Structures are given as C-alpha cells and as structure tokens.
Amino acid sequence: MKEISAGGVVYRRVNGELQIQLIQDRYGKISLPKGKMEPGETVEQTALREILEETGMEGKIISPIDQIKYTYTHEAKGTVDKEVHYYLVEATGGKLQAQVEEIRGVEWFEPAEAWRRQKQSGYDNNDRILSGALRLLGLEVQGHG
Ligand code: ATP
Q1: Rounded to an integer, what distance in angstroms lies between the CA atom of residue 108 and that of residue 126?
Q2: Residue in 70, 77, 76 with CA at minimum distance from that of residue 1
Q3: 7 pairs with which residues across the strands?
Q4: What are the residue ranges spanned by the domains of the chain?
Q5: What is the residue with the minimal CA distance to atom 11 of ligand 1?
Q6: Per CATH, the architecture of 2-136 is what?
Q7: How far apart are the CA of 132 and the centre of ligand 1, in A?
Q8: Ligand 1 atom closest to the CA of 34, numbered from 1
C-alpha cells in the first residue's frame, strides 16, 4: 500500500538567534514532526496540523523543502511505500509540548547542534531535508552528504 504524510522543519528566532525544532520519534530516532494526510486536506494543511498535534506549536508555511520516499513493513498493512512532503515552517505561537502517544520528545536547538544530532541519530534521508531548510534560512551546513 501507499502512504502519504507531510510535516516540517519548524524554526523560530529567540533574541535574533535561530532555533530549529527536532523530535525524537516513537522508534527512538531523531526526526521531524509529520503525519498522514486525512481526506479533504491539502499537504500543507496536513503538515501544519501534524506539527500542532505532535509538538504543540502553531506555524505558517514558508516554502516547500522536498520529499523523501522509503519503504517499511507493517504487521497488518504489509509493505508500505511511503512518501513524506516537508515544508519550512515558521513557529507563530503555541506551546512546546510533546504529544507522547505519537513522539517521545521535542526540543529547540541552535542550527549547528540540530545538524549534529540529525547526522548522529537521524534517518539518512532527512539529511537533505534539514540541510535544505538551513539553506533556505541562509545557512550553510558542513559535512552534508
Ligand atoms: P506518520 O508519522 O507518518 O503517521 P508512522 O509513525 O505511522 O508515521 P513512520 O514514522 O513512517 O510511521 O514509521 C514507520 C517505520 O518507518 C518505522 O520503522 C520507522 O522507524 C521507519 N521510518 C520513519 N521515518 C523514516 C525515514 N525518514 N526513513 C526511513 N525509515 C523511516
């Protein structure tokens, strides 16, 4: 079966300093908030709804980043072909609060630290998403690829 999810790289500025949000997913990996599309939703709506549901943050879409594709095996669903659409999202409000049924945690990091954690404990295919977001924010990352 095919599954389409959407999510985002969420950022904010605190006293002029950029901060990037990372989550720890329910499998223990560093990742980005995302979730499955629901009927009648646009991908952008899915991304913002899932960010709010999983992390408590309200945001607005700044631009698309890219998509990733992967396959996993699910007990009931069998082989799942998954596509995740990611957006650059500016935090506009809300309160950081991990929704513990869906994710283990959520935190803000300065960009270099976010990149280090992604490289160390993230999914490889999210490297391109995070580096794309940092580039859109005018930052260059080291050790990409
Ligand atoms: P969603 O957040 O879209 O509702 P989910 O929690 O149902 O998703 P996934 O996060 O896609 O499902 O996780 C299903 C399987 O895929 C898990 O084994 C997970 O570790 C793995 N997985 C999650 N994200 C990635 C990724 N970016 N690349 C490869 N495998 C991933």
Answers
A1: 17
A2: 77
A3: 34, 86
A4: 2-136
A5: 82
A6: Alpha-Beta Complex (3.90)
A7: 20
A8: 2
Q: How far is CA 86 from CA 14, 42, 116, in A?
A: 23, 13, 20
pTM over 0.85, yes/no? yes
63-106 residue pLDDT tens: 999 999 999 999 999 999 999 999 999 999 999 999 988 999 99
Decide if 30 contacts 120 (C-beta within 8 A). yes
Whether 126 shows a pLDDT value over 80: the answer reads yes
The closest of 78, 77, 68, 82 to 36, measured between CA atoms, is 82
74 lines ligand 1 (CB under 6 A): no
Tell me how far apart the alpha carbons of residues 15 and 55 are, in angstroms, rounded to a whole number. Answer: 22
29/43 Cα distance (integer angstroms): 24
DSSP 145: -
- Cα end-to-end distance, the chain, whole Å: 30
